[in-house]
């Protein structure tokens, strides 16, 4: 039986030992972070397809614009790390240095390419040293547009009979507004075009910046999620008052996961008050990002010898579900099915 020291049963098999006390977490959504990005190059249709096959409820594209105004799925507008652009002589002269949100970045930028030009590139694994199996799929996929991601979600919803949503993130919206390539209006128009401009549509729009989310609220009825990291937060998530202020313009909160289950002494500590306080403010809670490799796990959950080896990610998932989250982002949606995790009330023993 696999229990954390705080009394979480990590798997369905473990829960079978104490069915009376164990309760599955109902209704939590699995958000495939950049697709099944632990197993395929991120932000490709192959990564999204695999995520859906593994049971994901939502697929996450980060969105940046092209020179001609199309929204494409990339984590950042610099594409040297996730495509073959650096090996393409016809684009060598596009290499540039830009200041993006205060950081100097050198490489190739989506805003310097038309969609037709970007479509000639091929995606590659960002972390080949940690994900060599995924890197075997390098060169096979193009950069998808948001429309292609929505089309895939709709087609797979029809095919599987499940509702597959998209969870788009506006990346660097202030920077792109400064280039006259605003994201908010383009995304709102895309949602309208696809019949997704409603409170019940299978879509959440996320952002790390407050003002773009507020602007988006004036453009679309789609649900909004405020992202917050452990460092340098632009909002206050540590007080009930701060969370109430966020609830004025967002439906949900996307915290970095240790804000929900802190890392203490290299392992998992007791949950913070964040979920309880966020729920009291009327906010859903969808933490990010649960990854299986040792490199992304607290030291006491690591297994094997290499940073690429998978550790005890199930304990992280169990702890988050048992803390009451409404969903979570993961690079491994196949490991995160909430129906496979059970919670044992603290104080009870198996
Ligand atoms: O959007 C949730 C999470 O993805 C935020 O981090 O940097 O992976 O977009 P990032
Ligand atoms: Ca994201």
Summed up:
With 350 residues, the chain is of the alpha/beta class. The chain is built from eleven helices and 18 strands. It starts with 7 loop residues before the first strand and ends in a 7-residue tail after the last strand.
Any chance you could write out the topology, listing elements then pairs?
Elements (H helix, E strand, L loop, with lengths): L7 E2 L2 H4 L7 E2 L4 E5 L11 H9 L4 E3 L1 E4 L5 E3 L22 E5 L2 E5 L7 H4 L13 H4 L10 H15 L4 E2 L2 E2 L2 H6 L4 H11 L10 E4 L2 H10 L3 E6 L11 H8 L4 E4 L7 E2 L2 E2 L5 H7 L3 E2 L27 H10 L4 E4 L11 E2 L7
Parallel strand pairs: 3-4, 3-17, 4-9, 5-10, 11-12, 12-13, 13-16
Antiparallel strand pairs: 1-18, 2-18, 5-6, 7-8, 14-15
Helix pairs in contact: 2-5
The structure holds SN-glycerol-3-phosphate and calcium ion.
What features would you describe in this structure?
A hairpin with a 2-residue loop joins β7 (about 95-100) and β8. α2 (about 45-55) runs parallel beside α5. The protein has helices spanning about 10-15, 45-55, 115-120, 130-135, 145-160, 175-180, 185-195, 210-220, 240-245, 275-280, 315-320; strands spanning about 10, 25, 30-35, 60, 60-65, 70-75, 95-100, 105, 165, 170, 205, 225-230, 250-255, 265, 265-270, 285, 325-330, 340-345. The strands form six sheets. It has a four-stranded parallel beta sheet with strand order 9-4-3-17, covered by helices on one side. Strands 11-12-13-16 form a four-stranded parallel beta sheet, covered by helices on one side. With about 350 residues, the chain is of the alpha/beta class. The model is unreliable at about 1-5 and about 15-20 (pLDDT under 50). SN-glycerol-3-phosphate binds next to loops.
């Amino acid at each position: 039986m696999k229990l954390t020291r705080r009394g979480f049963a990590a798997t369905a098999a473990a829960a079978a030992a104490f069915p009376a006390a164990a309760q599955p977490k109902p209704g939590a959504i699995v958000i495939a972070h950049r697709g099944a990005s632990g197993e395929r190059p991120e932000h490709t249709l192959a990564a999204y397809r695999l995520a859906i096959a593994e049971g994901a409820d939502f697929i996450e594209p980060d969105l940046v614009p092209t020179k001609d105004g199309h929204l494409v799925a990339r984590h950042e507008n610099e594409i040297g790390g996730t495509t073959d652009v650096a090996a393409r002589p016809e684009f060598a002269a596009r290499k540039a240095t830009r200041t993006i949100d205060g950081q100097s970045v050198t490489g190739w930028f989506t805003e310097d390419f038309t969609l037709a030009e970007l479509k000639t590139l091929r995606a590659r694994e960002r972390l080949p040293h940690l994900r060599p199996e995924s890197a075997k799929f390098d060169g096979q996929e193009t950069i998808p547009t948001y429309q292609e991601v929505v089309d895939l979600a709709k087609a797979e919803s029809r095919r599987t009979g499940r509702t597959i949503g998209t969870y788009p993130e506006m990346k660097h919206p202030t920077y792109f507004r400064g280039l006259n390539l605003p994201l908010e209006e383009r995304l709102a128009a895309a949602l309208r075009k696809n019949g997704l401009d409603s409170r019940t549509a299978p879509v959440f729009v996320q952002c790390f910046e407050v003002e773009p989310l507020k602007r988006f609220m004036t453009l679309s009825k789609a649900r909004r999620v405020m992202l917050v990291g452990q460092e340098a937060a632009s909002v206050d998530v540590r007080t009930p008052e701060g969370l109430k202020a966020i609830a004025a313009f967002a439906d949900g909160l996307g915290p970095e996961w240790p804000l929900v289950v802190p890392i203490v002494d290299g392992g998992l500590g007791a949950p913070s008050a964040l979920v309880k306080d966020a729920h009291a403010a009327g906010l859903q809670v969808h933490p990010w990002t649960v990854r299986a490799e040792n490199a992304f796990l607290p030291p006491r959950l690591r297994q094997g010898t290499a940073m690429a080896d998978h550790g005890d990610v199930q304990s992280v998932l169990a702890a988050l579900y048992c803390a009451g989250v409404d969903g979570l982002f993961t690079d491994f949606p196949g490991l995160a099915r909430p129906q496979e995790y059970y919670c044992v009330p603290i104080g009870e023993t198996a």
